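REQUEST ID: PR-0412
SUBMITTED BY: lab tech R.K.
PRIORITY: routine
TASK: structure prediction, single protein chain
INPUT:
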Amino acid sequence: MPITRSQRNHRRRGPPALLCAAGLLCALALCPTAGLAEPLKLTVRGLDNAAQQNLRAHLGDVDAALAGQEARLQRILTRAVRDALQPLGYYEAQFSVARDGARLVIEVEPGPRVKFAAPEITVDEPAASLPPIRALLRSGALAAGTPLAHADYDRFRDELLRGCLRLGFFDAKYRLSELRIDLAARTATARLDLACGARYAFGTLEISGSRVDHALLASLARFRAGEPFDNELVSRFEQRLRDTGFFREVIVRVTPGADARADVTALTEDIVTSRYEVGLGFSTDSALRLRFNRDSPLLNDNGHSLRIESEITGSRQAVEALYRIPHRDPLDDILELTAGMQGKNVQDTDSLTATFGVRHAIKVFDDWAFGYGASVELERYTIASANEKRTAYLLPAASISRTRIDPGVDPRNGSAWFSAIDSSDRALGSPADFLRWRGSGKWLAGLPDDNTTVLARLELGAILTDGFENLPPLLRFNAGGDNSIRGYDFDSIGPRDDNGKLTGGRYLAVGSIEVSRRVLPHWRVAAFVDGGSAFNDATDPFYQSAGLGLRWLSPVGQIRVDVAVPVRDGERSGFKLHISMGPPL
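STATUS: complete
OUTPUT:
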């Protein structure tokens, strides 16, 4: 086929064009940064940290090419200053810009800041009268005279709506929601008009996926059908389901339905196997410690559970079984059957004890744990220089306790209270009539600097009896050790016989004050003083110690290392190391 002139010309021009394109690509490949300007360093003056960070976020990088286009740069800066500062209440900001070599300097004059005027907020009844909504309306979040921040307005508006939803006003919505700016008066007025609609009531409660008796699990809910809806009660119900230990997974859903009723459905998955724990630990009270536990949290449809704990140390060997039977509530009303054996060889006491008991544990006054019951105590023991003795007696007992503490490995506030009383007499097989009381209190408080905490501890005990010398060592008091008076060996403080051997005391009084300060994200240093004694008479010696400590806030809990020394003790001196683990209370 003949080639025309135009075709010949096209074919002749082709190769040079391709060569030019290839050359250009090679040049770009060899010089990857060609044509790309380095971003200029940015300096912003005249703004506080929050406003400056907001401006930098809106502005981004400014390259040298853009800095050379004055008109375009002015437009970009004007928009960035407006978008960054108006949400913070600065509506009259002015700026100037100058280039200093590789640095772009922006000087901003923010001008007067707009402030909130008295808000105009209307919430329909009955929502407006409910305590959570009333507290939110009185919080002063948008109080007149407060510097304007759009985020504060948005946060309050959303929280007010969420608060109504949490209380069962599922149809709530705003009739009016606006923030009106008056530049002449430099004020911002929040105007909110919330239509709440009807408050839903609790509907049906369904629990699926578990073999545990439905009525027993339903007792964990602190709400009943027909009562006003409150999502706080639903969240508490979900947490209580988890706290039973019966379930591998728990999901609770709320479904608003017809007739202003909200149905609650709990989807659960039972734990069907036992858990085994093998542990190796160390503390200066017990040296090397081996632990083996078995936990069977769900044995049958009635929610029975079994836990077996065993521990072996150089001076103590123990095994204990706890069988729990829910009564009316699987958390707050429990019947406990216990059996255990303990061998102990500490200081001048050698004992072997077997225990069988029954106890009823209930919650009273909302969060106090109260328990009462009785145990059969079988003991074989040797105290100090006395001959071996054997006893078998019934020991009725009762106790009450409460612990409140901030969550996490480094709590700032908390308290723990404990009080127990037990007694027996010769009619129950006891070697002597006696009444024993034990009590303790611990307080943890954070100081205003957010890094320092103060921990105070007090432990007391007393035995009323006319035959103290006949009581077994399990009932007597001793002091000293990691959680008692540091600077002394475990249970090394107490009355002694004529041969200088420890016999245990009739009374106990031990206290401690500790101040700790966080110096790194996961470390605290502490200083403390301990004091007290286990004694028979007021004239018996009183022991004191002081020391320094280090706290590692590890992922598994606080690990405490303390070095303490006795104070004004003519018989014992020198530093003693204490290592322990667990929460401060």
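NOTES: The longest strand covers residues 389-405.
REVIEWED BY: pending
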